[in-house]
Amino acid sequence: KAFPLQYLNIALHLRVVNAVMSSRSLITIIATCLAIIFTATVLRRQLAADFESTASDSASQLVSKRILSTKFATYGNSSLTPRRLITFNHSESTHRPLDSSLTANPVALIKCANQTRCIQPILQLKKTYKVYYCKKVSHGVRFFFLIKEGLLHHPNIILVSTPEAADVIVYLPESAAWGKTECNKPEYLSKLLILDEGDGPSLFDTGEKEQQKLYFKRSYVRRRDGIFQSYMGYVKRTDILPMSYTIADAYVSNMFTLQAKRDIEILCTLRASKHDPARSRVSQWVAEYAKARGVKGALDKPVNGASRTVISTGYFDSMHRAQIIVTANPSGWEGDFRLCESLASGALIFADQMYVPRPYPLIHDKHFVVYDNNNKTDLFEKLDAYRKDKALARRVALNGYIHAMRFHRAANLIDYVFRTLHMKELLQAEGKEGLLASATTTTVATTIPTIGMLSHGYTDTGYHMRLKALELKKGSLP
Questions:
Q1: pLDDT tens, 110-135?
Q2: TM segments (predicted)?
Protein backbone atom coordinates (compact mmCIF):
# COMPACT_ATOMS: atom_id res chain seq x y z
CA LYS A 1 0.00 0.00 0.00
CA ALA A 2 2.93 2.28 0.63
CA PHE A 3 4.44 1.59 -2.83
CA PRO A 4 4.74 5.07 -4.45
CA LEU A 5 3.10 5.53 -7.83
CA GLN A 6 6.22 7.10 -9.28
CA TYR A 7 8.14 3.84 -8.64
CA LEU A 8 5.36 1.91 -10.35
CA ASN A 9 5.72 4.20 -13.36
CA ILE A 10 9.49 3.65 -13.46
CA ALA A 11 9.03 -0.12 -13.24
CA LEU A 12 6.51 -0.12 -16.06
CA HIS A 13 8.69 2.06 -18.28
CA LEU A 14 11.65 -0.27 -17.72
CA ARG A 15 9.41 -3.22 -18.60
CA VAL A 16 8.52 -1.57 -21.93
CA VAL A 17 12.17 -0.83 -22.70
CA ASN A 18 13.11 -4.40 -21.87
CA ALA A 19 10.39 -5.72 -24.18
CA VAL A 20 11.56 -3.50 -27.01
CA MET A 21 15.22 -4.41 -26.54
CA SER A 22 14.60 -8.16 -26.27
CA SER A 23 12.25 -8.58 -29.21
CA ARG A 24 12.27 -7.50 -32.83
CA SER A 25 8.65 -8.57 -33.28
CA LEU A 26 6.27 -5.63 -33.61
CA ILE A 27 3.37 -7.85 -32.51
CA THR A 28 5.23 -8.85 -29.34
CA ILE A 29 6.02 -5.24 -28.52
CA ILE A 30 2.41 -4.12 -29.04
CA ALA A 31 1.05 -7.05 -27.00
CA THR A 32 3.48 -6.30 -24.19
CA CYS A 33 2.53 -2.62 -24.15
CA LEU A 34 -1.18 -3.43 -24.04
CA ALA A 35 -0.64 -5.89 -21.19
CA ILE A 36 1.35 -3.29 -19.27
CA ILE A 37 -1.32 -0.62 -19.79
CA PHE A 38 -4.00 -3.00 -18.51
CA THR A 39 -1.89 -4.01 -15.50
CA ALA A 40 -1.03 -0.39 -14.75
CA THR A 41 -4.72 0.58 -14.80
CA VAL A 42 -5.64 -2.20 -12.37
CA LEU A 43 -2.72 -1.43 -10.06
CA ARG A 44 -3.38 2.31 -10.13
CA ARG A 45 -7.01 1.77 -9.17
CA GLN A 46 -6.00 -0.59 -6.37
CA LEU A 47 -3.33 1.79 -5.13
CA ALA A 48 -5.75 4.71 -5.25
CA ALA A 49 -8.26 2.74 -3.20
CA ASP A 50 -5.57 1.76 -0.71
CA PHE A 51 -4.33 5.33 -0.41
CA GLU A 52 -7.88 6.58 0.11
CA SER A 53 -8.68 3.90 2.68
CA THR A 54 -5.59 4.59 4.74
CA ALA A 55 -5.73 8.37 4.30
CA SER A 56 -1.98 8.36 3.94
CA ASP A 57 -1.10 10.88 1.26
CA SER A 58 2.30 12.48 1.62
CA ALA A 59 0.86 15.71 2.96
CA SER A 60 -0.78 14.12 5.97
CA GLN A 61 2.17 11.81 6.61
CA LEU A 62 4.52 14.76 6.82
CA VAL A 63 2.47 16.67 9.35
CA SER A 64 4.87 17.18 12.22
CA LYS A 65 4.37 16.57 15.90
CA ARG A 66 5.47 18.18 19.12
CA ILE A 67 7.09 15.67 21.43
CA LEU A 68 6.48 16.92 24.93
CA SER A 69 7.71 15.97 28.37
CA THR A 70 5.32 14.44 30.87
CA LYS A 71 7.78 14.51 33.75
CA PHE A 72 5.98 14.93 37.07
CA ALA A 73 7.17 17.24 39.86
CA THR A 74 5.75 18.71 43.06
CA TYR A 75 4.18 22.15 43.24
CA GLY A 76 2.99 24.37 46.07
CA ASN A 77 -0.53 25.45 46.98
CA SER A 78 -1.98 27.06 43.85
CA SER A 79 -5.71 26.97 44.50
CA LEU A 80 -7.17 30.34 43.60
CA THR A 81 -10.65 31.73 43.03
CA PRO A 82 -12.49 29.72 40.35
CA ARG A 83 -13.42 31.48 37.11
CA ARG A 84 -16.72 31.03 35.34
CA LEU A 85 -16.69 28.80 32.27
CA ILE A 86 -17.72 30.11 28.89
CA THR A 87 -19.29 27.53 26.60
CA PHE A 88 -19.55 28.41 22.90
CA ASN A 89 -22.84 26.68 22.17
CA HIS A 90 -24.08 28.23 18.93
CA SER A 91 -27.81 27.59 18.85
CA GLU A 92 -27.98 28.93 15.31
CA SER A 93 -25.22 26.59 14.19
CA THR A 94 -27.03 23.30 14.66
CA HIS A 95 -26.04 21.53 11.48
CA ARG A 96 -28.76 19.73 9.60
CA PRO A 97 -27.75 16.16 8.69
CA LEU A 98 -26.10 16.17 5.30
CA ASP A 99 -25.80 12.41 4.98
CA SER A 100 -26.29 9.16 6.87
CA SER A 101 -22.90 9.49 8.58
CA LEU A 102 -24.39 11.96 11.05
CA THR A 103 -26.97 9.45 12.22
CA ALA A 104 -24.66 6.44 12.15
CA ASN A 105 -24.34 4.35 15.29
CA PRO A 106 -21.22 5.58 17.19
CA VAL A 107 -20.35 2.00 18.15
CA ALA A 108 -20.39 0.98 14.49
CA LEU A 109 -18.16 3.94 13.61
CA ILE A 110 -15.47 3.14 16.16
CA LYS A 111 -15.46 -0.54 15.18
CA CYS A 112 -14.46 0.44 11.64
CA ALA A 113 -10.93 -0.61 10.69
CA ASN A 114 -10.19 2.72 9.02
CA GLN A 115 -11.33 5.65 11.14
CA THR A 116 -10.43 8.49 8.76
CA ARG A 117 -12.51 6.90 6.02
CA CYS A 118 -15.50 5.72 8.06
CA ILE A 119 -15.95 9.01 9.94
CA GLN A 120 -16.27 11.58 7.17
CA PRO A 121 -15.80 15.34 7.71
CA ILE A 122 -19.07 17.27 7.35
CA LEU A 123 -18.65 20.00 4.73
CA GLN A 124 -20.82 22.87 3.46
CA LEU A 125 -18.99 24.56 0.57
CA LYS A 126 -21.20 24.82 -2.52
CA LYS A 127 -18.73 26.35 -4.97
CA THR A 128 -15.69 24.76 -6.61
CA TYR A 129 -12.44 26.76 -6.48
CA LYS A 130 -9.21 26.42 -8.43
CA VAL A 131 -6.48 27.02 -5.86
CA TYR A 132 -2.76 27.64 -6.03
CA TYR A 133 -0.90 26.83 -2.80
CA CYS A 134 2.24 28.91 -2.24
CA LYS A 135 5.38 26.88 -1.58
CA LYS A 136 6.92 26.54 1.87
CA VAL A 137 10.34 28.18 2.11
CA SER A 138 10.83 28.63 5.86
CA HIS A 139 9.14 27.59 9.11
CA GLY A 140 5.55 26.59 9.85
CA VAL A 141 6.01 22.99 8.73
CA ARG A 142 3.09 21.39 10.56
CA PHE A 143 0.55 24.01 9.58
CA PHE A 144 1.77 23.98 5.98
CA PHE A 145 1.12 20.26 5.65
CA LEU A 146 -2.15 20.49 7.58
CA ILE A 147 -3.45 23.01 5.03
CA LYS A 148 -2.08 20.96 2.15
CA GLU A 149 -3.91 17.91 3.47
CA GLY A 150 -7.14 19.89 3.69
CA LEU A 151 -6.77 21.23 0.15
CA LEU A 152 -6.07 17.75 -1.20
CA HIS A 153 -8.98 16.14 0.63
CA HIS A 154 -11.69 18.72 0.00
CA PRO A 155 -13.92 17.65 -2.92
CA ASN A 156 -14.56 21.24 -4.08
CA ILE A 157 -10.92 22.32 -4.23
CA ILE A 158 -8.91 21.82 -7.42
CA LEU A 159 -5.19 22.46 -6.96
CA VAL A 160 -3.54 24.09 -9.95
CA SER A 161 0.14 24.38 -10.79
CA THR A 162 0.39 28.14 -11.43
CA PRO A 163 -0.95 31.26 -9.71
CA GLU A 164 -2.26 32.52 -13.05
CA ALA A 165 -4.60 29.53 -13.38
CA ALA A 166 -6.04 29.94 -9.89
CA ASP A 167 -9.19 31.60 -8.60
CA VAL A 168 -7.58 31.82 -5.16
CA ILE A 169 -3.96 31.84 -4.00
CA VAL A 170 -3.49 30.48 -0.47
CA TYR A 171 -0.52 32.04 1.31
CA LEU A 172 0.89 31.23 4.77
CA PRO A 173 3.09 34.07 6.12
CA GLU A 174 4.73 31.79 8.71
CA SER A 175 5.73 29.27 6.05
CA ALA A 176 7.14 31.65 3.44
CA ALA A 177 8.58 35.12 3.93
CA TRP A 178 6.96 37.62 1.58
CA GLY A 179 10.27 38.48 -0.03
CA LYS A 180 10.96 34.83 -0.84
CA THR A 181 7.58 33.50 -1.94
CA GLU A 182 6.64 33.10 -5.59
CA CYS A 183 3.23 34.53 -4.68
CA ASN A 184 4.36 38.11 -4.05
CA LYS A 185 3.69 39.60 -7.48
CA PRO A 186 1.34 42.62 -7.43
CA GLU A 187 -1.00 41.03 -9.97
CA TYR A 188 -1.66 38.16 -7.53
CA LEU A 189 -2.81 40.31 -4.59
CA SER A 190 -6.50 40.30 -5.49
CA LYS A 191 -6.46 36.49 -5.42
CA LEU A 192 -4.64 36.21 -2.11
CA LEU A 193 -6.21 34.39 0.86
CA ILE A 194 -3.99 34.63 3.94
CA LEU A 195 -3.89 32.02 6.71
CA ASP A 196 -1.75 33.45 9.52
CA GLU A 197 -0.85 31.00 12.29
CA GLY A 198 1.54 33.40 14.05
CA ASP A 199 1.46 33.37 17.87
CA GLY A 200 1.73 37.12 18.28
CA PRO A 201 -0.74 39.95 17.59
CA SER A 202 1.09 41.38 14.58
CA LEU A 203 -0.57 41.14 11.18
CA PHE A 204 1.09 40.40 7.87
CA ASP A 205 1.04 43.31 5.40
CA THR A 206 1.96 43.04 1.74
CA GLY A 207 2.84 46.73 1.64
CA GLU A 208 0.55 47.24 -1.34
CA LYS A 209 -2.67 49.25 -1.51
CA GLU A 210 -4.67 46.45 -3.06
CA GLN A 211 -6.07 44.16 -0.39
CA GLN A 212 -6.28 40.39 -0.26
CA LYS A 213 -9.54 38.44 -0.46
CA LEU A 214 -9.63 37.51 3.22
CA TYR A 215 -7.31 37.21 6.20
CA PHE A 216 -7.64 34.49 8.86
CA LYS A 217 -5.69 34.84 12.11
CA ARG A 218 -5.10 32.13 14.72
CA SER A 219 -3.90 34.44 17.49
CA TYR A 220 -7.18 36.17 18.31
CA VAL A 221 -6.95 36.70 22.09
CA ARG A 222 -4.42 38.01 24.60
CA ARG A 223 -3.48 35.81 27.56
CA ARG A 224 -1.12 36.36 30.46
CA ASP A 225 -0.03 33.42 32.60
CA GLY A 226 -2.81 31.42 30.97
CA ILE A 227 -5.51 33.94 31.94
CA PHE A 228 -7.65 35.64 29.29
CA GLN A 229 -6.98 39.38 29.01
CA SER A 230 -8.86 40.57 25.93
CA TYR A 231 -9.60 40.01 22.28
CA MET A 232 -7.15 41.49 19.81
CA GLY A 233 -7.99 44.94 18.47
CA TYR A 234 -8.62 43.53 15.01
CA VAL A 235 -11.76 41.79 16.28
CA LYS A 236 -13.43 45.03 15.11
CA ARG A 237 -12.34 44.44 11.52
CA THR A 238 -14.56 42.48 9.15
CA ASP A 239 -11.57 41.40 7.04
CA ILE A 240 -9.60 39.73 9.89
CA LEU A 241 -11.35 36.56 11.00
CA PRO A 242 -10.55 33.90 13.64
CA MET A 243 -9.04 30.53 12.80
CA SER A 244 -8.12 27.47 14.87
CA TYR A 245 -5.91 24.44 14.35
CA THR A 246 -7.56 21.13 13.48
CA ILE A 247 -6.80 17.42 13.46
CA ALA A 248 -4.51 16.01 10.78
CA ASP A 249 -5.38 12.53 9.54
CA ALA A 250 -1.88 11.40 10.45
CA TYR A 251 -2.83 11.85 14.13
CA VAL A 252 -5.60 9.26 13.84
CA SER A 253 -5.10 5.54 14.37
CA ASN A 254 -6.74 3.20 11.87
CA MET A 255 -8.32 1.24 14.73
CA PHE A 256 -10.05 2.98 17.63
CA THR A 257 -8.94 1.78 21.08
CA LEU A 258 -11.75 1.37 23.60
CA GLN A 259 -11.33 2.97 27.03
CA ALA A 260 -11.29 -0.42 28.75
CA LYS A 261 -8.23 -1.45 26.72
CA ARG A 262 -6.19 1.67 27.50
CA ASP A 263 -3.49 1.03 30.10
CA ILE A 264 -2.42 4.63 30.81
CA GLU A 265 -5.01 6.13 33.13
CA ILE A 266 -3.81 9.75 32.97
CA LEU A 267 -1.40 11.31 30.48
CA CYS A 268 -0.12 14.88 30.58
CA THR A 269 1.68 16.01 27.44
CA LEU A 270 2.91 19.37 28.72
CA ARG A 271 6.55 20.35 29.04
CA ALA A 272 7.40 22.34 32.15
CA SER A 273 9.18 25.60 31.29
CA LYS A 274 9.82 28.88 33.06
CA HIS A 275 8.65 30.59 29.87
CA ASP A 276 5.28 28.83 30.07
CA PRO A 277 4.08 29.05 33.70
CA ALA A 278 0.49 27.98 33.02
CA ARG A 279 1.51 24.72 31.43
CA SER A 280 4.20 24.16 34.03
CA ARG A 281 1.79 24.35 36.93
CA VAL A 282 -0.80 22.14 35.21
CA SER A 283 1.86 19.51 34.54
CA GLN A 284 2.94 19.65 38.17
CA TRP A 285 -0.65 19.47 39.42
CA VAL A 286 -1.22 16.30 37.42
CA ALA A 287 1.93 14.84 38.97
CA GLU A 288 0.65 15.72 42.43
CA TYR A 289 -2.73 14.24 41.65
CA ALA A 290 -1.27 10.97 40.38
CA LYS A 291 0.84 10.64 43.51
CA ALA A 292 -1.91 11.64 45.96
CA ARG A 293 -4.53 9.33 44.41
CA GLY A 294 -2.18 6.45 43.72
CA VAL A 295 -3.06 6.47 40.05
CA LYS A 296 -1.97 3.33 38.27
CA GLY A 297 -0.63 3.71 34.78
CA ALA A 298 0.10 7.44 34.95
CA LEU A 299 2.87 8.25 32.50
CA ASP A 300 5.67 9.86 34.47
CA LYS A 301 8.52 10.17 31.99
CA PRO A 302 9.20 11.87 28.66
CA VAL A 303 7.70 10.00 25.74
CA ASN A 304 10.68 10.59 23.45
CA GLY A 305 12.50 13.41 21.72
CA ALA A 306 11.48 13.28 18.09
CA SER A 307 11.60 16.37 15.93
CA ARG A 308 8.76 18.54 14.69
CA THR A 309 8.94 17.26 11.13
CA VAL A 310 8.14 13.56 11.57
CA ILE A 311 5.42 11.34 12.96
CA SER A 312 6.47 10.22 16.45
CA THR A 313 5.21 6.68 16.94
CA GLY A 314 6.10 6.63 20.65
CA TYR A 315 4.27 9.87 21.37
CA PHE A 316 1.10 8.90 19.53
CA ASP A 317 1.17 5.35 20.84
CA SER A 318 1.08 6.76 24.38
CA MET A 319 -1.83 9.06 23.51
CA HIS A 320 -3.86 6.22 22.06
CA ARG A 321 -3.21 4.16 25.21
CA ALA A 322 -4.41 6.96 27.51
CA GLN A 323 -7.85 7.05 29.13
CA ILE A 324 -7.53 10.72 30.14
CA ILE A 325 -5.26 13.35 28.58
CA VAL A 326 -4.71 16.65 30.39
CA THR A 327 -3.53 19.49 28.18
CA ALA A 328 -3.47 23.30 28.25
CA ASN A 329 -3.01 26.24 25.92
CA PRO A 330 0.23 28.24 26.01
CA SER A 331 0.50 30.90 28.72
CA GLY A 332 0.62 33.83 26.30
CA TRP A 333 -1.78 32.87 23.53
CA GLU A 334 -4.51 30.42 22.60
CA GLY A 335 -4.37 27.59 20.12
CA ASP A 336 -1.91 24.72 19.73
CA PHE A 337 -1.53 21.33 18.10
CA ARG A 338 -1.59 19.45 21.41
CA LEU A 339 -5.35 19.75 21.75
CA CYS A 340 -5.85 18.46 18.20
CA GLU A 341 -3.48 15.55 18.73
CA SER A 342 -5.29 14.71 21.97
CA LEU A 343 -8.75 14.81 20.40
CA ALA A 344 -7.60 12.48 17.63
CA SER A 345 -6.59 9.86 20.20
CA GLY A 346 -10.13 9.18 21.43
CA ALA A 347 -9.18 9.77 25.07
CA LEU A 348 -11.21 11.91 27.47
CA ILE A 349 -9.68 15.37 27.06
CA PHE A 350 -9.18 17.89 29.85
CA ALA A 351 -8.33 21.37 28.52
CA ASP A 352 -8.29 24.87 29.95
CA GLN A 353 -10.83 27.55 29.00
CA MET A 354 -10.67 28.81 25.40
CA TYR A 355 -12.14 32.07 24.10
CA VAL A 356 -11.57 31.98 20.35
CA PRO A 357 -14.92 30.91 18.85
CA ARG A 358 -14.61 27.98 16.49
CA PRO A 359 -17.18 26.40 14.18
CA TYR A 360 -19.16 23.56 15.72
CA PRO A 361 -17.58 24.19 19.12
CA LEU A 362 -16.47 21.61 21.63
CA ILE A 363 -18.90 21.77 24.55
CA HIS A 364 -17.89 21.26 28.19
CA ASP A 365 -19.11 17.96 29.69
CA LYS A 366 -20.37 16.83 26.28
CA HIS A 367 -17.24 16.64 24.11
CA PHE A 368 -14.45 17.34 26.60
CA VAL A 369 -13.86 18.70 30.11
CA VAL A 370 -12.91 22.33 30.74
CA TYR A 371 -10.91 23.09 33.89
CA ASP A 372 -9.50 26.28 35.39
CA ASN A 373 -5.75 26.42 34.75
CA ASN A 374 -5.37 28.70 37.78
CA ASN A 375 -7.24 26.47 40.25
CA LYS A 376 -5.75 23.15 41.31
CA THR A 377 -8.84 22.17 43.29
CA ASP A 378 -11.03 22.53 40.21
CA LEU A 379 -8.79 20.19 38.22
CA PHE A 380 -8.57 17.64 41.05
CA GLU A 381 -12.33 17.57 41.60
CA LYS A 382 -13.06 17.07 37.90
CA LEU A 383 -10.47 14.31 37.61
CA ASP A 384 -12.03 12.62 40.64
CA ALA A 385 -15.54 12.88 39.21
CA TYR A 386 -14.68 11.43 35.81
CA ARG A 387 -12.46 8.70 37.19
CA LYS A 388 -15.33 7.66 39.45
CA ASP A 389 -18.02 7.73 36.74
CA LYS A 390 -16.48 5.51 34.05
CA ALA A 391 -19.65 5.44 31.95
CA LEU A 392 -19.77 9.23 31.77
CA ALA A 393 -16.06 9.36 30.93
CA ARG A 394 -16.52 6.89 28.08
CA ARG A 395 -19.53 8.79 26.73
CA VAL A 396 -17.85 12.21 26.75
CA ALA A 397 -14.63 10.81 25.27
CA LEU A 398 -16.49 9.09 22.43
CA ASN A 399 -18.72 12.10 21.75
CA GLY A 400 -15.69 14.38 21.63
CA TYR A 401 -13.74 12.09 19.33
CA ILE A 402 -16.56 11.63 16.80
CA HIS A 403 -17.48 15.33 16.92
CA ALA A 404 -13.86 16.33 16.28
CA MET A 405 -13.52 13.81 13.46
CA ARG A 406 -16.62 15.21 11.76
CA PHE A 407 -16.10 18.92 12.30
CA HIS A 408 -12.44 19.58 13.17
CA ARG A 409 -10.27 17.98 10.48
CA ALA A 410 -8.04 19.59 7.87
CA ALA A 411 -10.80 19.43 5.25
CA ASN A 412 -13.16 21.15 7.72
CA LEU A 413 -10.74 24.04 8.14
CA ILE A 414 -10.51 24.48 4.37
CA ASP A 415 -14.30 24.32 4.16
CA TYR A 416 -14.59 26.99 6.87
CA VAL A 417 -12.21 29.32 5.06
CA PHE A 418 -13.72 28.87 1.60
CA ARG A 419 -17.37 28.95 2.63
CA THR A 420 -16.58 32.26 4.33
CA LEU A 421 -15.02 33.47 1.08
CA HIS A 422 -17.99 32.26 -0.95
CA MET A 423 -20.40 34.03 1.40
CA LYS A 424 -18.42 37.25 0.94
CA GLU A 425 -18.50 36.88 -2.85
CA LEU A 426 -22.25 36.30 -2.83
CA LEU A 427 -22.84 39.41 -0.73
CA GLN A 428 -20.53 41.46 -2.97
CA ALA A 429 -22.51 40.35 -6.03
CA GLU A 430 -25.70 41.55 -4.32
CA GLY A 431 -24.13 44.80 -3.11
CA LYS A 432 -24.71 43.76 0.51
CA GLU A 433 -21.17 43.29 1.79
CA GLY A 434 -21.45 46.49 3.84
CA LEU A 435 -24.19 44.88 5.93
CA LEU A 436 -21.53 42.68 7.54
CA ALA A 437 -20.10 45.76 9.24
CA SER A 438 -23.48 47.14 10.28
CA ALA A 439 -24.42 43.77 11.77
CA THR A 440 -21.71 44.22 14.39
CA THR A 441 -23.52 47.20 15.91
CA THR A 442 -26.75 45.34 16.61
CA THR A 443 -27.70 44.12 20.05
CA VAL A 444 -26.45 40.79 21.33
CA ALA A 445 -29.92 39.31 20.83
CA THR A 446 -30.03 40.15 17.11
CA THR A 447 -26.38 39.92 16.06
CA ILE A 448 -26.34 36.27 15.02
CA PRO A 449 -29.82 36.25 13.42
CA THR A 450 -28.78 39.29 11.36
CA ILE A 451 -25.68 37.59 10.01
CA GLY A 452 -27.75 34.44 9.49
CA MET A 453 -30.00 36.27 7.04
CA LEU A 454 -26.95 37.26 5.00
CA SER A 455 -25.21 33.90 4.97
CA HIS A 456 -26.89 32.23 1.95
CA GLY A 457 -27.49 29.07 3.94
CA TYR A 458 -23.97 28.81 5.32
CA THR A 459 -23.44 28.40 9.06
CA ASP A 460 -20.36 28.82 11.23
CA THR A 461 -18.43 31.01 8.79
CA GLY A 462 -15.60 33.30 9.82
CA TYR A 463 -18.13 36.13 10.05
CA HIS A 464 -20.26 34.13 12.48
CA MET A 465 -17.20 33.40 14.62
CA ARG A 466 -16.07 37.02 14.68
CA LEU A 467 -19.53 38.17 15.76
CA LYS A 468 -19.58 35.55 18.50
CA ALA A 469 -16.33 37.05 19.81
CA LEU A 470 -17.88 40.52 19.70
CA GLU A 471 -20.92 39.22 21.53
CA LEU A 472 -18.72 37.87 24.32
CA LYS A 473 -16.66 41.04 24.35
CA LYS A 474 -19.78 43.13 24.99
CA GLY A 475 -20.24 41.80 28.47
CA SER A 476 -20.63 38.08 28.86
CA LEU A 477 -16.98 37.36 29.66
CA PRO A 478 -16.04 36.53 33.28
A1: 999 999 999 999 999 999 999 999 99
A2: 25-43
